[in-house]
């Protein structure tokens, strides 16, 4: 089984698909064109327990970093991921970064 993370900007979310089916999503809002606020992450229960939430958030954050967006992790799952992966700390919005220090 292969999982793929893609931005779906028309739906304002990153989606993870597995074998062609949407298994979950991480919703976001773009603010002022340079900030991405992650608001909610959800994995379909049919795909639970496979670590897809971690793959999804990791892919979404890596894409945001690549696009040089400042990350604002409002979603608790995204915030937990950032705490566990400090390589994303420099890419947090400055005001948020202080809370993670």
Explain this structure to me?
- There is one protein chain.
- The chain is α+β, with helices and mostly antiparallel strands and about 100 residues long.
- It has one domain (about 5-100): 3-Layer(aba) Sandwich (Aminopeptidase).
- About 30% of the residues lie in helices and about 35% in strands.
- The chain has helices at about 50-65, 75-85, 95-100, and strands at about 5-10, 15-20, 20-30, 35-45, 70-75.
- A 5-stranded mixed β-sheet has the order 1-2-3-4-5.
- The longest helix is centred in the middle third of the chain and has 15 residues, at about 50-65.
- It is globular and about 40 Å long.
- The N and C termini lie far apart (about 35 Å).
Q: Topology, pairings included?
A:
Layout: E1 3-8, E2 13-18, E3 21-31, E4 35-43, H1 52-66, E5 70-73, H2 76-84, H3 94-100
Parallel strand pairs: 4-5
Antiparallel strand pairs: 1-2, 2-3, 3-4
Structure described in brief:
The protein has 101 residues and is an alpha+beta fold. It has three helices and five strands.
E-strand count: 5
Give the name of the CATH architecture. Answer: 3-Layer(aba) Sandwich
Fill in the CATH topology.
Aminopeptidase
Please indicate the count of domains.
1
Index terms:
3 helices; single chain; globular
């Amino acid at each position: 089984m292969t999982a793929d993370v893609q931005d779906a900007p028309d739906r304002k979310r990153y989606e993870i698909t597995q074998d062609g089916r949407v298994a979950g999503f991480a919703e976001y809002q773009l603010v002022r064109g340079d900030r991405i606020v992650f608001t909610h992450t959800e994995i379909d229960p049919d795909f639970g327990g496979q670590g897809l939430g971690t793959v999804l958030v990791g892919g979404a954050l890596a894409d945001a970093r690549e696009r040089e967006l400042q990350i604002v992790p409002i979603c608790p799952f995204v915030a937990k991921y950032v705490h566990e992966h400090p390589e994303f700390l420099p890419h947090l919005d400055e005001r948020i970064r202080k809370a993670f220090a």
